[in-house]
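Support request from a user on the community tier.

User writes: "When I paste my structure tokens into the form, the page sometimes reloads and wipes my input. The last time it worked, I copied everything first. Here is what I submitted, just in case something in the input itself triggers the reload:"
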């Protein structure tokens, strides 16, 4: 091992790669990490961080309207896109520097440039070559826009944060996290948003009740939701982009954002030089220790096609480094991983959907609650919060918790701890609520909505 330049060479300085590099270096490993775009990867630069900042910006418009019935009178301020965009850039630059400092503090070498695997123990960056005992691929995902007439006129989530001009009319194509979140962002900032999804209902994979309730509430905000339809073509016209749809209709917009999925970012990585297997979906195949079919090469995070969440990549990076360099048995448990969709209103969820829980546990008891939040009894906003608990009848364990409503993500983090700890419905029932909050509804739901 000492004959090589590094014990570990990480390709990709996103969440998972940086965490793995830092922890491995902390165990005394000689570590290098290569990055050809930006420190912090998708999440910091064109993902969850800038997106959440834009969500905050978009919520002010609704808050100004809500305030009138609380006695706050006056004109609604004018929104300036350039101010938001440029302040976001400054914050991202600050975070990029923090990531570099974290790696420097861990004594990991940062190599800027595109890394390419030459063989099972060699990585090239430009004209330089580095020998490593282990290579870790953590290059994440990349937005995919399908080919169709005019597809070159569409943009992806990578470009949407830094548009030169604010799009007053925006079409968003897709039905996942990214699509619904940007629909809420640009609707809240004042754009006329049309969201197109080829399926009957967006957010596939979420609980059916959550999907239905979210669609109803998002439509109330003014987003034009069109399900069962897809884009046929896009063409430039005198008034903007002409978008022809598969149902025979057409819309005219300023910008078309495609959010129809992401693919593993493997281009130019040199995988043809090694025995790394790629699955039918274009992801790297790994075992439970993130080892590929090439024994010295590992991969983790979005590039493996698993659960595409930043905290999951962080956990995988930690697990990889502890097992490979710390001699620890530290496996990631993929059950009861909480997540939030920062659409408006927010979605927070942890555990099993009702269908998945029934398949896994058998008989269930299901509890539901829908209500107008206290704030909106005065604001006048037509918005309903929805909560759902799924309980395994045999053990009384709560195996799924789901919410649509303000601060759902913040609330669900605490619920996730309870579910990870195996809390039963009896534990929920004997927990004292915090009053008055929306969150207390999770410990006051007593009437069974459905029992198998």
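"...and here is what came back when it finally went through:"
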């Amino acid at each position: 091992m000492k004959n090589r330049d590094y014990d570990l060479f990480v390709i990709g300085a996103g969440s998972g790669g940086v965490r793995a590099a830092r922890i491995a270096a902390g165990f005394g490993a000689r570590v290098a990490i290569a990055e050809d775009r930006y420190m912090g990867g998708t999440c910091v630069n064109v993902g969850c961080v800038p997106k959440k900042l834009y969500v905050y910006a978009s919520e002010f418009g609704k808050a100004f309207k809500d305030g009138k019935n609380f006695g706050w009178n006056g004109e609604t301020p004018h929104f300036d896109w350039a101010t938001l965009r440029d302040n976001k850039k400054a914050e991202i630059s600050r975070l990029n520097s923090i990531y570099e400092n974290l790696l420097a503090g861990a004594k990991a070498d940062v190599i800027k440039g595109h890394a390419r695997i030459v063989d099972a123990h060699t990585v090239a960056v430009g004209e330089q070559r580095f020998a490593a005992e282990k290579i870790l691929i953590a290059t994440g995902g990349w937005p995919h826009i399908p080919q169709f007439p005019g597809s070159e006129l569409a943009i992806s989530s990578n470009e949407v944060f830094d548009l030169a001009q604010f799009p007053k009319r925006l079409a968003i194509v897709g039905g996942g996290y990214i699509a619904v979140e940007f629909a809420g962002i640009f609707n809240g900032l004042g754009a006329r948003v049309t969201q197109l999804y080829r399926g009957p209902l967006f957010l596939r994979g979420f609980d059916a009740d959550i999907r239905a309730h979210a669609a109803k509430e998002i439509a109330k905000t003014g987003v034009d939701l069109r399900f069962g339809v897809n884009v046929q073509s896009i063409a430039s016209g005198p008034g903007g982009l002409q978008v022809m749809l598969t149902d025979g209709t057409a819309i005219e917009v300023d910008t078309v954002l495609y959010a129809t999925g992401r693919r593993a970012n493997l281009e130019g990585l040199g995988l043809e030089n090694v025995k790394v297997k790629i699955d039918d979906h274009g992801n790297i195949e790994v075992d439970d220790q993130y080892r590929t079919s090439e024994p010295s090469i590992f991969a983790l995070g979005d590039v493996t096609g698993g659960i595409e969440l930043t905290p999951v990549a962080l956990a995988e990076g930690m697990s990889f480094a502890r097992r490979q360099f710390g001699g620890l048995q530290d496996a990631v448990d993929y059950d009861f991983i909480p997540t939030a969709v920062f659409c408006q209103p927010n979605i927070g969820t942890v555990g099993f959907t009702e269908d998945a829980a029934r398949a896994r546990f058998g008989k269930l008891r299901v509890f539901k609650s829908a209500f107008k939040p206290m704030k909106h009894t005065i604001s006048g906003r037509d918005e309903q919060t929805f909560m759902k608990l799924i309980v395994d009848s045999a053990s009384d364990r709560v195996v799924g918790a789901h919410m649509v409503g303000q601060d759902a993500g913040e609330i669900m983090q605490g619920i996730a701890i309870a579910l990870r700890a195996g809390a039963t419905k009896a534990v929920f029932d004997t927990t004292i609520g915090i009053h008055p909050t929306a969150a207390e509804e999770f410990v006051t739901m007593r009437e069974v909505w459905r029992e198998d």
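Agent notes: The reload is a front-end session timeout and is unrelated to the input. The radius of gyration is 24 Å. Residues 81-105 form the longest helix (25 residues). Escalated to web team.
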